[in-house]
User: Which sequence fits this backbone?
């Protein structure tokens, strides 16, 4: 459980710092246009901190870490979020500095999204294995 809490905490710090980076970089360069930097902090706070706080609650209820797929979910999801946010930061920084980002950055960001999706699939498989299905005895009978 401590690992999940620490992960949420790290994403909270990164989310706050990325918001500061966005504000200061755009101010220093007198940039007023659209940039992906404006959503990096939101991605880190929502897909990082809030998401892992929810996973922490699910761990408390269903002992997610006891299942063999949990570690796979944890590392794949974190890799996906790191790659995605890293590419958003790079693309946004290049935009503010007046440079083109190119197709490679978009392609790598796409790989980050694929990893995020794979991580989410693993989480749902883990949840499906750990949350028992309702038995027929638990279901209400028809009138």
Assistant:
């Amino acid at each position: 459980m401590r690992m999940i809490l620490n992960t949420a905490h790290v994403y909270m710090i990164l989310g706050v710092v990325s918001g500061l980076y966005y504000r200061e970089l755009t101010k220093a360069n007198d940039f007023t246009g659209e940039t992906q930097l404006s959503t990096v902090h939101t991605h880190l706070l929502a897909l990082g901190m809030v998401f892992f706080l929810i996973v922490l609650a699910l761990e408390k209820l269903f002992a997610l870490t006891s299942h063999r797929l949990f570690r796979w979910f944890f590392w794949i999801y974190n890799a996906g979020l790191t790659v995605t946010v890293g590419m958003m930061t790079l693309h946004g920084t290049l935009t503010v500095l007046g440079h083109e980002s190119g197709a490679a950055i978009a392609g790598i960001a796409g790989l980050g999204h694929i990893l995020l999706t794979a991580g989410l699939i693993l989480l749902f498989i883990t949840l499906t294995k750990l949350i028992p299905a309702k038995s027929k005895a638990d279901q209400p009978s028809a009138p």
